[in-house]
C-alpha cells in the first residue's frame, strides 16, 4: 500500500501471532503503520526497508485501513498501537506472561506501570527502561540487550516515536530474544500524560486532528505535509488500478 507491505490481519490474528512468537522466545519486530509511517517510507529508503522486512506491519491510522479496504482488503480494521498494547496486556496477565517497557520518560514509565498493574493485577512487568535522547554507546546498548533477555519478557513494547522506534527494533532483531512492538505514543496515552482523542474521533479517522490541536506548534508541519502527500499517493494508487 503506497509502496509499503501492510498485513491484512484481524485483531485476533494479530494477538495470536504475537503470543505465539512470544511463547517460542522468537526475536521478531512489529511495525504499527499510520499515515506518517507510509509517507516516510516513500521518502526514506532505510525506513522503507525496515517496514518491508518487519515480521508484521499493521494499519494503525484509520486512513491506512480505509485505503486497504478500497484496495481489496475487505473489512480491514484499524490495528492501532495503544489498543494492541492494552489488549495484549490483558491476555498476558491471564497467561502469566511478562512484558518489558522500553522508551518514554522515567516519570511516564512510573505512572504507566502503576496504571497497567491497577487494570491487570496479574500482569508481570519484567522491566522498564527510559533511554537517553542521545544514541547509546555500544557498551550501554549491550547492557540493555542483556537486561531485556535476562528479564524473560516475551514482548518488548517500544515507545520512541516514528521512525526511531522502527529502526531500533530492526537493529535489535536477532539480539533481543522477544517480540518488539513499536507503539508510538501509547505509553503517554495509557499513563494519561497525553490525552487521547475521544472514541468518535478515533472511529472517524480524526485522531490526527486531536493530536494536532493538542500540540499545534510541534505537529502542524508534520500533519500538513504528510496528510497532503498521503492523499496524493493514495489517489495515484486508486486511479491506477
Characterise the protein shown here.
Helices cover 56% and strands 13% of the residues. It contains twelve helices and six strands. α6 (106-119) links the parallel β3 (98-103) and β4. The radius of gyration is 17 Å and the shape is globular.
Name the helix and strand elements from N-terminus to C-terminus, one letter apiece.
Answer: HEHHEHHEHEHEHEHHHH
Radius of gyration: 17 Å
Strand order of the largest sheet: 2-1-6-5-3-4
Q: Let me know the number of strands.
A: 6
Shape descriptor reads globular
Q: Terminal Cα separation, in Å?
A: 12 Å
Largest sheet: 6 strands, parallel
The oligomeric state of the chains shown is: single chain
Topology:
Layout: H1 11-23, E1 28-33, H2 35-43, H3 45-52, E2 56-59, H4 62-70, H5 81-95, E3 98-103, H6 106-119, E4 124-129, H7 138-151, E5 155-159, H8 164-172, E6 179-182, H9 186-191, H10 199-203, H11 207-214, H12 216-239
Parallel strand pairs: 1-2, 1-6, 3-4, 3-5, 5-6
Helix pairs in contact: 1-5, 2-3, 2-12, 11-12
In short:
The two termini are 12 Å apart.
Key descriptive features of the protein:
56% helix; 241 residues; single chain; 12 helices; 6-stranded parallel sheet; alpha/beta; 6 strands
Amino acid at each position: 500500500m503506497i509502496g509499503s507491505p501492510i498485513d491484512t490481519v484481524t485483531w485476533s490474528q494479530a494477538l495470536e501471532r504475537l503470543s505465539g512468537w512470544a511463547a517460542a522466545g522468537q526475536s521478531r519486530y512489529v511495525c504499527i503503520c499510520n499515515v506518517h509511517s507510509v509517507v516516510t517510507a516513500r521518502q526514506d529508503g532505510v525506513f522503507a526497508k525496515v517496514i518491508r522486512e518487519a515480521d508484521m506491519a499493521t494499519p494503525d491510522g484509520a486512513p491506512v485501513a480505509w485505503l486497504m479496504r478500497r484496495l481489496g482488503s475487505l473489512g480491514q480494521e484499524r490495528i492501532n498501537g495503544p489498543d494492541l498494547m492494552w489488549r495484549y496486556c490483558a491476555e498476558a496477565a491471564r497467561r502469566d506472561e511478562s512484558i518489558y517497557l522500553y522508551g518514554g520518560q522515567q516519570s511516564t514509565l512510573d505512572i504507566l506501570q502503576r496504571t497497567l498493574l491497577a487494570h491487570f493485577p496479574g500482569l508481570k512487568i519484567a522491566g522498564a527502561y527510559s533511554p537517553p535522547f542521545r544514541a547509546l554507546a555500544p557498551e550501554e546498548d549491550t547492557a540493555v540487550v542483556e537486561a531485556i533477555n535476562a528479564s524473560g519478557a516475551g514482548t518488548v513494547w517500544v515507545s520512541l516515536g516514528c521512525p526511531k522506534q522502527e529502526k531500533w527494533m530492526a537493529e535489535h532483531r536477532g539480539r533481543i530474544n522477544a517480540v518488539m512492538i513499536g507503539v508510538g505514543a501509547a505509553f503517554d496515552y495509557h499513563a494519561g500524560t497525553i490525552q487521547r482523542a475521544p472514541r468518535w474521533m478515533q472511529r472517524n479517522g480524526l485522531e490526527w486532528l486531536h493530536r494536532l490541536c493538542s500540540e499545534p506548534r510541534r505537529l502542524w508541519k508534520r500533519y500538513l505535509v504528510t496528510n497532503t502527500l498521503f492523499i496524493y499517493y493514495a489517489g495515484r494508487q486508486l486511479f491506477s488500478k
